[in-house]
Amino acid sequence: MNARAWISLYGLLIRTSVRSRMQYKFNFVLSTLLAALIQISEFLMVAIVLYKFGAIKGWSLYEIGYLYAVMTLAKTLYRTFADEVHHLEKYLVNGELDGLLIRPLPVLLTLMPQSFRIMLGEVLQGGFVLYWALSGMMQSGQVGWTSVPLTLFIIFTGAIILFSIGLATATLGFWTTRISELQNITEDAARTAAQYPLTLYPKWMSGLLLTLIPVGLVNYLPSLYILRGEMGPWVLALTAGAAVLCLVLSLLFWRLGLTKYQSTGS
């Protein structure tokens, strides 16, 4: 089956999942509103502190808002299309993965759209903060309109990097079964740390967030070029190359992990 056929099949699985979830419209609307309120309240707390004390280590409120929004939207894109990767533990513990293994489709392709979520609240919140941050920097002349397509580009590459980190972490579950604590470090804590300038952290930690758990490549490194013109456009090429490399390595690791899976019934 060629790539176009796989994409078509994945789209069909997503539509099936959406129809199932939309049977409960009130729950969908309520969860969307709550997600938006939670996300907005998190950034408002940071914004209040920054407004009171001004720039932090040379990073303005608009710049930090930009980092926050890019990370939020990249994470939303990843979790919209592959949320069940983050929840692989339940498939391993309850034996639900067995049902996916017997289907005549790649396991990952079947897993990803199982609980497809339209994360409208996160999209609205991230989009609003991004619009506010870019508008403020455009008015001051810090950035131009070219920052818009470049930002969309790094949101896309960032989603690939976050997906790769999530997939690699989930794959470790084939050996350990329980992965939620590890996900707290590699996904949640690392992503939260990278919502802010890496210059706030010790060098060993910022180095970790740029290499071993490369969440800093999602927003911080490309923002140095997009917002400040530092280094050069090669930074964007580096980010794209890193996204492709992370994706390939995580898929190879996933393939290896599947060979180590032991059914709960075996």
Share of β-strand residues: under 5%
Task: Give the helix tally.
Answer: 13
Largest sheet: none
The whole-number mean of residue pLDDT values reads: 84
SSE pattern? HHHHHHHHHHHHH
Number of strands: 0
Return the domain count.
1
**Judging from the principal axes of the Cα atoms, what is the shape?**
globular
N- and C-termini, Cα separation: 31 Å
Helix content: over 70%
Global structural class? mainly alpha
Radius of gyration: 19 Å
| Uncertain regions spanning at least 5 consecutive residues | none
Please tell me about this protein's structure.
- The chain is mostly helical and 266 residues long.
- The protein has one domain.
- The chain has 13 helices and no strands.
- The longest helix has 29 residues.
- It is globular, with a radius of gyration of 19 Å.
- The two termini are 31 Å apart.
- 35% of the residues are buried.
Task: Please describe the structure with a list of short key phrases separated by commas or semicolons.
266 residues, mainly alpha, 13 helices, 73% helix
SSE layout and pairings?
Elements: H1 3-21, H2 25-53, H3 61-86, H4 88-94, H5 97-101, H6 107-111, H7 120-139, H8 147-171, H9 173-176, H10 180-193, H11 203-208, H12 220-228, H13 234-259
Helix pairs in contact: 2-7, 3-7, 3-8, 8-10, 8-13
